[in-house]
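User: Need the bound-state model for FE2/S2 (inorganic) cluster:
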Amino acid sequence: MPMITFDGHDYDCHQGETILESLTRHGVLVPSACGQGVCQTCLTKAVKGKPPVESQKGLKDTLAAQGYFLTCICKPEEDMELAIADVSKGSVGITVIEKQMLNESVMRLRFQCDEKIEYFAGQFVNLKHPDTDLVRSYSLASLPEDASLELHVKRVPDGQMSGFLHETLQVGGRLSLDGPAGDCFYTERDLDQSLLMVGVGTGLAPLYGIVRDALQHGHRGDIHLFHASLAKQGLYYVDALNALAKQHENVHYIPCVLHGDVPEGGQQGDIQQLVQAAVPQLAGWRIYVCGDPEIVNGLKQTCFMAGASMSDIYTDPFV
Ligand SMILES: Cc1cc2nc3c(=O)[nH]c(=O)nc-3n(C[C@H](O)[C@H](O)[C@H](O)COP(=O)(O)OP(=O)(O)OC[C@H]3O[C@@H](n4cnc5c(N)ncnc54)[C@H](O)[C@@H]3O)c2cc1C
Ligand code: FES
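Assistant: Bound-state model below.
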């Protein structure tokens, strides 16, 4: 049974248990949020012992080479000694400058940062509750040159952070963030490549940044942007995206609903089937899919089966 040394104490780690699970079982609180190797909140450094390769998934090569890994997906194979990572540039203080409902459950929040943060449109930040150790990830809908950060937050029933952001936090309120993180963003490597973007619910947030970023870079290839929701009331930014499609003839915006009324120019049905029917061949395409993890993972498979290369598929499952 591997032993984990942290902060001068030794903790046993059961077979098949992650380091995060072991530390939590022993009553040791370390930062974490998604628990699935996505948000990088639990980034930690091994000062002794080698972290398994799988626990370094998604980390920059330079971090992995220095022994950094994610405790929530690390099932240790040998004794390890840990130090909480100190690679973030430090948290940045932010002030709420706008709260605006975009539909009945999604709120747009705009924040002024105490200092400018460098990011790519579509990356996410980790918001920290001002009074507790709660951390949650939210995608950036703004562009790096915008004066403020824009987030789209869905109110989750009994959700701690979304409840706080919707109901308690007021304009002028303060909190902080870490980041940015994530590799779901546009790069200028082929301006003529066709792009498929699928956002489920607030999965539109990163895509709203990415599509405008691509256009600002002079992207010439077709851009098919699907926004999926259960019903029409769950869509938002319909007018803004129709206007974008009108301004740019390579942009095709398709709002999709599973049930009920279909918005103008939109479609009804299962999003995976709608995408498959609209673009059955995806060889050579670049794909961005964000939002509900089950749909994102399903679409990733669908796109791969339709000919897209895995290295051309960028996803942000909102776990
Ligand atoms: C990379 C990334 C990007 C994201 N971007 C966005 C975004 O742009 N917009 C957005 O709205 N969200 C986004 N998310 C999701 C977001 O991080 C939060 O998960 C979401 O807001 C819910 O957090 P919460 O604290 O409100 O809910 P939580 O308090 O975590 O609860 C979530 C739900 O789980 C239930 N629950 C909690 N604990 C338990 C338990 N022990 N047993 C059973 N049920 C339980 C609650 O009742 C609630 O319904 C993103 C996630 C990731 C990983
Ligand atoms: S908590 Fe480990 S990566 Fe999110």
